Amino acid sequence: MMTKSTREATMRALVELAAQDERIVLVSPDAVLAGRAVPFLEKYPGRVIEVGIAEQNAVDLAAGLATTGMKPVVVSYAGFLTMRACEMIRTFIAYPGLNVKLIGLNGGMLGGEREGVTHQFYEDVGILRSMPGVTVLTPADAGQAYQAAKAMMEVDGPVYLRLGSGREPEVFPEETPFVLGRIREVASYGDDVAIFASGFVMNRAILALEQLKEEGIHGTLVDISTVKPLDSRAVAAVLARTNCAVAVEDHNFYGGMSSAVCEVACHYHPCRVIRLGLRDVYPRSGKPEELLDAYGLAVRDIVDGARQAMQRGSTV
Amino acid sequence: MTNSELSRMANRLRLDVVETVHRAGDGHPGPCMSIADIVAVLYFEEMKLRPEEPRWPQRDRFVLSKGHACPVLYAALARRGFFDPSELPGLRSLGSFLQGHPDMNKTPGIDTVSGSLGNGVSVGLGMALGCRMQKIDNYVYVVVGDGEQQEGVVWEAAMAAAKHNAGNLIVFADCNNNQSGGKVTELSSLYPVSDKWTAFHWHVQRIDGHDIAAIREAIRAAKEETQRPSLIECTTVKGKNIPYMENNNAWHKRTPTAEEVAAAREALGGLI
Q1: Residue A17: pLDDT over 90
Q2: How far apart are CA A237 and CA A263, in angstroms?
Q3: Which residue in A111, B88, B135, B203 has its CB near the most CB atoms, within 10 A?
Q4: Which of A24, A28, A53, A57 best probes binding to B when mutated, by most B CB atoms within 10 angstroms?
Q5: A251 by DSSP, 3-state: which?
């Protein structure tokens, strides 16, 4: 399996954009190395504001910068941003709708893997999704992250971009479009079941779709890379075709993409949605692929989830 | 304005606060009184502003970190011409643009959201750096309470401001030794305040926060220091100039009765 860094891809996009817009500035709570921002620092030394290990200050400071018309991008670990600086994001950026971009590293178990729970973050999407006015992006690989970074800088308002460890599986051709606010059908063999996937488990969702096909189940795989605002009507349209779905993400069971899909199902097209994610537990340190397998995100789990979704009536 | 005119303006703002909170039926009058002189000097003498163009990019910025004292800020904005003083009693009411705590998108002249304590120095630092990067020749003024300096983010910002040589950042510490739950000195070991800012490499001054001449002189000295951010420790009295409010923490958040408004008017009468 080829891997490519979402962190490097994102920073490459920002370096390119910064050449055309000198209001773009990085705010770093000691995250220049982690965020792979050395090329940005070398090219624009006056446009990196290093604040030391102080995420709350980084977020507040970015809010202040944005009030003057600058376009700050705060880079840090997903949990230190969305949990330690949670209220700063909510009150000082989201509430006034300021043009601040937030890049969260180590999204999911896969993102933090061997570091353990302190550096694995599976609550970020749920936390930010609960705040009015925040756009939440979960690109599936490095190529998508590059395009997502460019797309987010077009938004005049708060956007969160969820990145990983820097060793994300490469799943899509580089030229694959990323359209902010839209879902994308990755592949469709039929309407037996929908697989909604988000982020760096996309490779597993693709394998599951193929496995299902071999087992005679013809599904449709949908990439949800903008979790908020969710393309609800498009999700509903897929559900109307399949009448069942499995939703898979590297995030806790509550609040993430799979919750959002269920909210859409409840409102527009009630049907069975099996959710796959971390089942409300704290995992352990481990090698990335082993971790995902151990905590319910194996290809087989997705296949079984799809089969379960297709069963009519009670499965209890 | 002359010093005595500024002093009278500060008292005018104090009376505005008492009347506003009385008519609105809710608000924090006590914390307004300790900063009224600072706010008067800033809005009626020091700050470069255009009331007819509130978002004028070249303007000086103001961050009321202790956002619950916004009635005095709203009074200053109204008296300075950002909006009509008749709007003041709308405070905290649905339909009014005067929120319970400052909101940059609803109230003309407000530069940021504030009121969640401890964040103002950091937001102000961002403004100072943003203005400097765009070569805007201005100052960012922040008023931070003493109690809210118990929040850790204040010191994160203090560290960063010195490192980034934010000479265009001037912070007033409103040291009235009262906070919601009692005396600051009883709830924490914050004092002495100025020693801590000195240790964080700031340019530090100590003044009587009700002495107009001292406030003006401290701002002049702060502006002369171009490399370091400035902290002006202002010794103040919560409830200042309203006899029944002075140093009475019951007035942290309380609505004056009609009789109390009359008493305030009388106490301030000769001072306005």
Answers
A1: yes
A2: 14
A3: A111
A4: A57
A5: strand
User: Contact, A47 vs A22, CB < 8 A?
Assistant: yes
Structure tokens belonging to residue A61: 């400071």
Which pair of tokens denotes residue A125? 């999407």
Query: What is the nearest CA distance from B55 to chain A, expressed in angstroms?
Result: 9
Interface contact B105-A96, CB threshold 8 A: yes
pLDDT of residue A314: 54
Q: Are A69 and B57 an interchain contact pair (Cβ–Cβ within 8 Å)? A: yes
**Mean pLDDT for chain A overall:** 96
Min Cα distance A109 → chain B (Å) is 29
Q: Are the beta carbons of A99 and A106 closer than 8 angstroms?
A: no
Q: How many whole angstroms separate alpha carbon B96 and alpha carbon B88? A: 9
Distance from CA of A284 to the nearest CA of B (A): 31
Using CB atoms, which residue from A64, A70, A87 is nearest to B124? A64
In the three-class reduction of DSSP (H, G, I as helix; E, B as strand; rest coil), residue A303 is classed as helix
- Measured distance CA(A161)–CA(A229) in Å, rounded: 13
Determine the residue type at A46: G
Q: Mean pLDDT throughout B220-230?
A: 98
Judged by DSSP in three states, A84 sits in helix
**Mean pLDDT in residue range B168-183:** 97
Superfamily name with CATH number, domain B3-269? Thiamin diphosphate (ThDP)-binding fold, Pyr/PP domains (3.40.50.970)
Secondary structure in 3-state letters for chain B: CCHHHHHHHHHHHHHHHHHHHHHHCCCCCHHHHCCHHHHHHHHHHHCCCCCCCCCCCCCCEEEECCHHHHHHHHHHHHHHCCCCHHHHHHCCCCCCCCCCCCCCCCCCCCCCCCCCCCCHHHHHHHHHHHHHHCCCCCCEEEEEECHHHHCHHHHHHHHHHHHCCCCCEEEEEEECCEECCEEHHHHCCCCCHHHHHHHCCCEEEEEECCCHHHHHHHHHHHHHCCCCCEEEEEECCCCCCCCCCCCCHHHHCCCCCHHHHHHHHHHHHCCC
Write the residue in B61, B125, B153 that is nearest to A56 by C-beta: B153
- The gap from C-alpha A229 to its chain's centroid, in whole angstroms, comes to 13
Domains of chain A: 3-169 (3.40.50.970), 184-308 (3.40.50.920)
Query: pLDDT at residue A315 above 80?
Result: no
> Which ipTM value was assigned to this complex?
0.97
pTM tops 0.95: yes
CB-based contacts of B164, cutoff 8 Å, min separation 6 = A49, B125, B129
- Say whether residue A25 is in contact with chain B using an 8 A CB cutoff: yes
**Per-residue tokens: B187:** 């709830």
CA–CA separation, A301 and A164 (whole Å): 22
The candidate with the shortest Cα–Cα distance to B74, out of B122, B47, B106, is B106
Structure tokens, A227: 């979790």
Q: How far is the C-alpha of B254 from the C-alpha of B249, rounded, in Å?
A: 10
pLDDT tens string B178-192: 999 999 999 999 999
Higher per-residue pLDDT: A134 or B269: A134
How many residues are listed for chain A in this entry?
A: 316
| Contact residues on chain A for B138, CB-CB shorter than 8 A | none
